Amino acid sequence: MRVLSGIQPTGRFHWGNYFGAIKQYIELQYENDGFYFIADLHALTTIRDPAVLRANVRDAALDLLALGLDPSRATLFVQSHIPEVSELYWLLMTGTPMGLLERCVAYKDKMARGIRADAGLFSYPVLMAADILAYDSQCVPVGEDQIQHIEVCRDLAGSFNHHYRDTFVIPAARVLQESAKVPGTDGQKMSKSYDNTLALFEEPKELRKKIMRISTDSRPMEEPKDPDSDDLYQLYSLFATDEQREEVRALYLKGGFGYGEIKKRLADAADVFLEPLRIKRQTLAQDEKLVNNTLEAGAKRAREVASSVLHRAQSACGLRV
Ligand code: TYM
Q1: Residue 173 Cα, ligand 1 centroid: separation in angstroms?
Q2: Which pTM was predicted?
Q3: Ligand 1: residue whose CA is nearest its atom 27
Q4: Is residue 110 annotated as a catalytic residue, yes or no?
Q5: Distance from the CA of 21 to the center of ligand 1, in angstroms?
Q6: What are the per-10-residue average pLDDT scores of the chain (321 residues)?
Q7: Same structural domain, 42 and 117
Q8: Are residues 63 and 23 in the same domain?
Q9: 206 in the same domain as 177
Q10: Catalytic pick from 108, 181, 189, 280?
Q11: Is 192 a catalytic residue?
């Protein structure tokens, strides 16, 4: 099965990115044909400093490799290295109803928060549709916040196929139920734009401080609490072993504990998980050529697929014989 997903290099990856999406990329790379890319074109809607963007793309590639993405199993590449995607984007734009994009939450959200919107941000889901369709993707592993975009992609592909002829494979989103929407330190969805993230490769002391500042309610210690509706418990569950999770669950149900204690347990469990990844990342970063070589090979493979799909789409709509 062709599996594809993209991630924006808009800052260091956080726990939401990993448990919602990257973990799936890695799990799926063994049995499937995985295509994973760093969405630098999408990042241009927020980052307008060339040096920052360049550095972020390199960091993103190193992070993904350190987290376990294996370029001998999956294709890792940079979105903008495949110009066919931008051409396909235009073909799709001509069939995109304005109303469809006006309903998209990411755009509506930014407008509501008074963030300047440009046409790039508005048409963002169409570029995302081009990303997915360019590789005949069948399965798109993502967090919950991307489901609407994949619905837009399915709509656009369906109407193109209907209006011209069968051209695109219709993809399906894949979401992990237990980590579809990882909460941030303030209880909202963890997101770079809300400044509530816990980064994967954060300096350990800094990370511990941030964990200790996670917001919790002020109910008395003795009171039993429902673990399933508690964000701190949800975060702890991401890292804990089954045994550790059961132990903390029992504490919640019984009452008589302080949130500070759970935060300490969370910081310890996160550290056990993250420390080997930090070491791996440091080792990988010493190989100067690794990122460029990996991304070059990835682009070559991805372009082969995208150019054949673009050719198919151009023929269908009359741009080629
Ligand atoms: P981005 O860069 O915002 O996020 C990358 C992935 O992380 C997931 N994610 C989360 N999952 C669970 N809980 C959270 N708090 C959380 N925060 C982020 C996202 O759902 C996503 O899967 N538009 C995309 C990038 C993209 C793309 C694509 C994805 C561009 N083209 C084609 C799939 C297919 C984005 O901005 O993701």
Answers
A1: 12
A2: 0.96
A3: 6
A4: yes
A5: 7
A6: 97 96 98 98 94 98 98 98 98 96 86 83 96 98 97 98 98 96 95 93 95 91 90 96 95 92 97 97 96 98 98 96 80
A7: yes
A8: yes
A9: no
A10: 189
A11: yes
